[in-house]
# Entry
Amino acid sequence: MGEERKEWPVKLPSFDFSGKTVVVTGGTKGIGCAIAMAFARCRANVVVSSRHQSDCMETAQTICSYGGCAEGICADVRQVSEIARLMEKSVLRFGGIDILVNCAGTAVTKRIVDLEEEDYNKVMDTNLKSVLFASKEAAKIMIEKGAGGKIIQIASIGGLKGSNCLSVYGASKAAVLNLTKTMALEWSRYGIQVNAICPGYVVTELNKAQFENEKFLDKTLKQIPQRRLGTVDEIAAVALFLACDQSYMIQGE
# Structure
């Protein structure tokens, strides 16, 4: 076939994140944990964060037992001061932040007429406020470093359509999608890429009880063309793609 070309015009995707630092909020369970594990397997330094230090340490130790590099740093991302502390500690530990994955989330399953103000505050502070201020703090660090970065929000298909008994959850995720577009507009000039992933139905601690109801599960599967639920690893794979060099033309999506 003749001599092979030494330099092809198209680069193959590389998921080697050696030297990169990734901060994952909500990183000890479900989708967040799978994302933390995936980045660690691809040689990134991973900061695993959630509200409880014991959970953070356990997940980080599990990653290290597989040969990865991880640090567990607890933070209640509903509090701006704790978000700032998380980012500061991440920089002190690994020297910077290259990728932020905002995965912390919660939901309240109630009809609108039964909602209380505390339900609204709980969901909005966890799902929206945390995304705004964690992204802000990470972007400031990335801008100062001058090497760009990636910010990935874990939103939801619930932010694209209405869902019975999930009004505030859906509203929070819809707000995250709009915020993602604005962040992309403001930070593109600094080489910071911001996108959101909208998972469909994936079993996590947040919805596990619902999917144990066979009637609900059967009804849900009939709405899905593949007739199956997604997996946390499939969402992690999308996060890896959005963080790799081949995704630089995808911005604010």
In short: The mean pLDDT is 93. The chain is about 45% helix and 10% strand. The first strand starts at residue 21 and ends at 25. The CA atoms of residues 49 and 98 lie 16 Å apart.
